Amino acid sequence: MEIPAAIRDVDHLEELLSEPSPAAIDAIRRVEGDIVILGVAGKMGPTLARMARRALDAAGLPGKVIGVSRFSSPAPQRALEQRGVETIRCDLLDEDALARLPDAANVIFMAGRKFGSTGDESLTWAMNTHLPALVCRRYRTSRIAAFSTGNIYGLTSSGRGGSREDDVPAPVGEYAMSCLGRERMFEHFSRAHGTPVAILRLNYATEMRYGVLVDLARRVRGGDSIDVTMGYCNVIWQADANAMALAALAHASAPPFIVNLAGREELGVRAACTELARLLSVEVSFTGQEARDALLSNGARGWERLGAPRVDASRLLAWTADWTRRGGESLDKPTHFESRSGRF
Prior knowledge:
15 strands; single chain; Rossmann fold; 7-stranded parallel beta sheet; alpha/beta
């Protein structure tokens, strides 16, 4: 992959976000078969689906990529179909509709609910815990890569490398607890049915239109004072997270293979905002004081098994500042990474 100095526009961005890594192509060659992506219309799903299609093509395999979502807007559905991804409209909580979905050797589970959880906790639990059980029964003979979150660990001390996969979960708030419930459903059905599963604890994917760095850059450029109480974070280029998810299919096992998807750096919010301010030629001010802990994940297992990240934090900061300075497109979906209460 050639790393450009800047990202020209949305087309260039999405081309980069959907470029498969060698590890992803190798994994697709090893697992073969069609790939069904459940919850494809979210922030990551469209570029992951395109990457899966490109990986199959690069591997010289004829399999289908099938994206499933409610598709409340027709534009994402059309865009996927134009890129060779078949699409199906489906409310995944409708068990009859779920049963009618096509069989596939490989399933990537991306459906879930985070924002809006506070005040509507029951729907969050239905999406994050009940739905995985339904999917495990429907696709009991498939290989499944299921997205989860680093939030299941809770806060961990900074400067120690981040939470590891064998750490005892300590979720804070109903969103994180429901995500641990999701993992337990995949674990239970993997053990009960022998279904090979990979659980992907993501922390945090970023691209030019959303992510922690986008949130910070927009605040810095807008002259907002930056609260550094949640003083540290991990970021990973979304294309690297996509590629690692595809590569994880080849490592799915019963009981599940559990892996963190996280960047190499423990990024200081104060240092990141200072660099963004320099790149944007503005001043930045701060409030608060860094707490001793944050939501941090150690991604070493993923780098070793699924391929190392191709883009580092310094490049992401430069890209984000340039995109923000030029007024590039934004999804206007803040991450709320600074929340320490677990309420979203």
